[in-house]
Each structure stands twice: as structure tokens, then as C-alpha cells.
Amino acid sequence: MPLICFASPKGGVGKTTLAANVADALQRRGRRVLAIDFDAQNALRLHFALPITDTSGFMSQLPQRPDWRTLVRRTSSGVFLLPHGATDVRGALNLAQALDREPELLAAPMREILADPNLVVIADTPPGASHALSILAPMSNMVCAVLLADATSAALVPEISNGSFLGGGTIANLMAGRLRVILNGIEPKSRLSRAVSEMLTRHLGPRLLGAICREEMMAEAVAAQRFLLDVAPGSQAALDLQETTTAIEAALGAAPELFAARGAM
Predict the structure, then answer these.
(1) DSSP 8-class letter at 199
(2) pTM across the whole model
(3) InterPro entries of this UniProt entry (predicted)?
């Protein structure tokens, strides 16, 4: 506790990269952080330098009711990680059907995880509406929707504003007050990127947590399986990341002592 879900109405917006780097930034500030991958692409592990051959994980085994504690990795960054685990189309379909029949398969272990008051949980969820997000959203303290500063994101503003990209009905209503937005990949030299950023800033107001400029160093950090704050701590993107992390903490109203404990999971 708290639970921060990273979500997006569409793929390809840098959601997983941002979730990993925010988790790393929080850990550097003395927080005890658990990052959990709910996206079947199983990509979050790569940001934490897990071997490509390490394909086991939590969500891929969920229908078998695994003990999540046995699957937690302590990464070299200090962040704890629950990988999704490798799966195929059949496995993904079986998981979706299992969660549809029995949401408690996921809700029960998440309650156990969130019972630890000294833990910040970062959840990387699949793009768009999903079974995982529909279960996690009501349990979360914040849903961070990641958008690019482009024409597609501008067109998605109504779905972002009313939370409908999270799913219909009750979920959207529940999350209306917890939804925040992060703009990613802003290109200062692009007239369109600047225009979209300014429009979203005016429209979203205090729901806009931060904006991250586009820099090649971010891609280089990902390729090297390292974090931006290691590779280019003085870059504009790193400064933007730090400001966004500060805004997340402020929006949660987190007391410093809540996250003081460190150590084993």
C-alpha cells in the first residue's frame, strides 16, 4: 500500500518504461517498492535486467493459485519484482477466462500484498480495458494514464476525461477521482507535440501529473537494461521523471514515515 496502476488507452506510449523508471525513482528516495507486471508481453522484467531465459512469473501461473511470495525477485536496483511470466495465446485466453469466472484469483493475493503498509506497489497493466485492470482499479490509490503528445492522444481526451478507457459503467465512475495523466515523449521542436501538450495541459488541469520530454538516452537506457537515472541523471528527461515522481508522491499525500521500512519482502 499504496497501489499505483500504470495504464494507457493504447499501446506504444512507453507505459512500461515509465512504470519501471518511476519504480526505480521511488526506490532511490528510500521507498520499498514492488513492481508487478500484469501485461502478457512480459516486458517489465527486461527493464530490471532479468535474464531473457527467466520466463516464470505470477500472472502466467495464476490459474494454478501460486504463492506469490515464492515468485518475487529482488532486482539489482533494489526494487522487488513480480514478473508476468511467459505465456502463449492459449494461456492468455485461459487466464482471461479464469479471471472472468473468479476475480478473487487475483483480488485475494493483491489484498495480501497491499496489507503491507510499508510497501509501494507499481502495477504495469495491459493497454486498454482488461480483466486485470478492472480488478486492480478499485483497489488502487491512483491510476496513471500514460499518453503521447500526438494527434491520437488528443482524440482520446474524452475517454481519458471520463475514465471510459478503463472499462464501462462502475469502473469508470469509481476511478474518476483517482485518474491522473502523464504525457510522455514530448518533442519540444515539434509544433504538433507542443500544441497537443498545451491543449492537454489546459484540459486536464491538476489531473496532469507530469510531462516527460523525448530523448534518445531513454531508449539507450532501455537497450542497456538500465535506468535513466543511472545513464543520464542530468538529462531533461531525467529531471522530468524526478518532477513527475514528486508529483505522484504529493498527489498520494504520502507521509514519509509510511515508506521508511526497508528490507526483505
Answers:
(1) H
(2) 0.91
(3) Cellulose_synthase_operon_BcsQ, DNA_Partitioning_ATPase, P-loop_NTPase
